[in-house]
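Notes from the 1:1 (GR / supervisor)

We went over the backlog. Supervisor wanted to see one worked example end to end before approving the batch request, so GR pasted a single chain during the call. The sequence is below; no edits were made to it. Supervisor asked that the structure be written out right there so they could see what the output format looks like.
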Amino acid sequence: MLGGIRHGACAAGKGRGCPARTLPAPPAEKPLPATPPLDLPTTGPVPAVPAVPGLTGLTGLGLDPRLVDAARQAGWQQATPIQALALPLACQGRDLLALAPTGSGKTGAFVLPLLQGLLGQPGLQDARPRPLHALLLAPTRELAAQIQVQVQQLAATLLPGLKTVLAVGGLSINPQMMALRGGAHVVVATPGRLLDLLAQRALHLDGLQLLVLDEADRLLDLGFAEELGRLLPLLPRRRQTLMFSATLPDGVAALASQWLHQAQTLQLPAAPPADLPDGAAPSRGVTQRAILVDTARRTALLRHLVASQGWQRVLVFVATQYASEHVADKLQRAGVQAAALHGQLSAGRRQQVLDDLKAGRLAVLVATDLAARGLHIDALAAVVNHDLPRSSVDYIHRIGRTGRAGAAGVALSFIAADAPGSELHFRLIEKRQQLRLPREQVAGFEPAVVLAPLPVDATGGVKGRRKSKKDKLREAAALAEAAAVAAARRPLKG
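Structure output shown during the call:
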């Protein structure tokens, strides 16, 4: 599991699990005035602030000029639309629920206000023990590590005494407890490991001022609802909370009602149509394509596309850990610098693979859906669905790895021409996204035969899903005939 080892299996020390969590009592505080629940729809666009047409400068958004200069030196020349919407309100101390597609710059929308708040407390860096200013929760250890790096990069010159601690599962808890000695100004954590540290009294939340939940929908997808429910009563009620999500399922709407106080809901102007169930849309910079190819020739086609298109960095998605290793091995034997990324790799190995891709030592990363959310890889030219995703939401988050923050990218999906279920499944994804892509064929990789997909009824169900014996025999005969024709056309080797 990408989000880290959960509950008692967190490997504290030499192979021992963490002791059972006995969490401290919630801090006693004066009650806040009652807040009516947020009126959030679970489908369609949520109430939005005025539209922002495109990228804008960082000035005029309420940021300290020193922070603007530091952001520009780090390469943040312009604010993305979601940043332009969120920054003025966040810098005023408002609670926010921000809904934006994957790759729209949500991280900057909370990192910049975080540092703005720290700049407004000049004696904070010298105080001992260090007071905890901000807690950032992320669903996966890789995303948490990326957030920590961005905070440290922007704070390097502005706040040289700032201490940030990464607290994630899958690693020994002891070094993280040592890092928290003397306190920390910013903690970036996964929910399970955060509860472990609270149970060990290595961290106290009494003075917390800013709480951020990044990828809130993914937090729930990975089963962190119980951990979040246990964490809520331990938080000080007088705090600012920023919640970011790519989609708005029922769980996220309920989470927002519980965690946010008099919050402003933000959504990008490029909202999906009201009847789009998942409330998600791909980035405008992503060109989507669908290619028909025989199942057995997908990897060969992938190798051809990498070479012919001149892609320097490619992320390829497959369905299983075995497929990840298998496809990466075939590419390596063909001379392509490729590696696998999946949940069975150690934390160190996964980070090394990601670093190799970002540094250009790898051209192709073959991953399971482990990499579908939260990862940011600069100049990622293409995403390839070697195996189709299970759902339209997974599809959006996969292709969202490219075309990030206004950049251009391409997303290719291989549709197995010799498997009618493949075409049918992709049509259902298209239906959910209100999308229809032309089916392409690549010269030299034309399928031997294209089987007609099963019909889809008006409600999205599949008619005749179970094939009759005669249908199976006809299909097998058609495949055999097509294979014989293809074999006859191949030139003899002599």
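Supervisor's comment: Confidence is low (pLDDT under 50) at residues 1-17, 29-53, 270-281, 457-465.
Batch request approved.
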